[in-house]
Amino acid sequence: MKKIFLLLLVAHSVLAQSGIQFLQTPIETVFQDARRSGKPVFVEIYSPTCHVCQSFMPTLADSRVGKFYNTKFTNTKLDFALPSTRAFLEKYQLLVPSLPLFLYFDPQQQLIHFAMSNNSTDEVIRHGTNALNPKVRSQTMKSRYVQGERSPNFLIDYAMYCRITKDTVGNIAVMNEYARKTSPTTYTNQTNWLALQKLVLDFENPMFQYMLNHLDAYRKAYGDEPTKDVAENILMSSLFSGRGLSYPVTKILEIRQDLMKIGIAPKVVTNRTLLPEVNAYLRTHQTAKAVERMDNHVNANQMSVPEYLYISRLFNRNSLDAVATPTVVKWVNKALTLRPEPKDQANLYRELAEAYKKAGNTAEAQRAAQKAI
């Protein structure tokens, strides 16, 4: 029995070593080893609770995969949930859209390739082979795009590379081109449904605009809630993106109507678009419209002291005229009736002083400032 047990231990040890040998050392040490050996680095971003990641374990333990990766790469794996992994990804400005994610770096820690692989031995080896080929790896996608490469699969891969490297501008341009080159008759197929889920970030993308005008077709193919979720994600990611900060009011109102069109409750939509609308009005010096929009919200909701303080500051800091002063005074006085803590009282009186000062009412501004003190 002892001999059988020892044989099983040896067999298990050999099997465990036949696949990819993942270093357990910190990532910086992994790159130090890579620089000494001159090998690129393969990093699997995974989660121990991810069932898809678990399904890859036999593939990564395959002897053919192990022989290829152990010869060609220095290998490690990082648990996505760990703070050290998040810090590593943040350092290199990398996004993880789904797990597992394969990342390939040169020894100097430059990302050269990525892969979101099918679960097969040949596919995992193919991705590693591509990472070693300067002509086809992800690092060259931008130059290949500039030089005119436009195949559908290339555009999909490049758009995902843009997502992973947080190049939103590049992603939008590529996906707009993909949508223009793709027949609308195929917009509802599985490939383009996945593209809407994973790659489309801009509500003006032609494929998403088609979706908004053919919601029933998507609901029939993929279900009511999934369709609503995908559309909502694209609309909200557009509204609260960096480019969304410069949207004109007309575009924000368009998103507002689209949110209601996909089935979001009107009151929820009104609340979500409140600040983008108000900021757009203030940015274009339409103070009266900004005041009206915000005051309607105040009158329809029970506001807290911090909320009154926030909106008072918003208008005092961002309006260039005294149009908002009477309304800001009203908001501050309402907040004061809620018996705020002394610190909040002081801040409210300060905003009151700022509002009166903007209106040129020096006496009231001084009185409010004294109360703040």
Concise structural overview:
The protein is of the alpha/beta class and 373 residues long. It contains 21 helices and five strands.
Average pLDDT level: 94
Helix/strand order, N-terminal first = HEHEHHEHEEHHHHHHHHHHHHHHHH
Beta strands, count: 5
Outline type: elongated
- In quaternary terms, these chains amount to single chain
Q: How far is the first residue's CA from the last residue's CA?
A: 85 Å
Biggest β-sheet description: 5 strands, mixed
Strand percentage lies at 5-15%
Ranges where pLDDT stays below 50 over 5 or more residues in a row are 3-16
What key attributes describe this structure?
373 residues; alpha/beta; 21 helices; elongated
Helix-strand layout with pairing:
Blueprint: H1 2-18, E1 22-23, H2 27-37, E2 41-46, H3 51-60, H4 63-72, E3 74-79, H5 83-91, E4 101-105, E5 111-115, H6 121-131, H7 141-146, H8 152-164, H9 168-181, H10 190-198, H11 206-213, H12 215-222, H13 224-239, H14 249-261, H15 266-272, H16 274-283, H17 287-300, H18 305-318, H19 325-336, H20 342-358, H21 362-372
Parallel strand pairs: 1-3, 2-3
Antiparallel strand pairs: 2-4, 4-5
Helix pairs in contact: 4-6, 8-9, 12-13, 13-14, 16-17, 18-19, 18-20, 19-20, 20-21
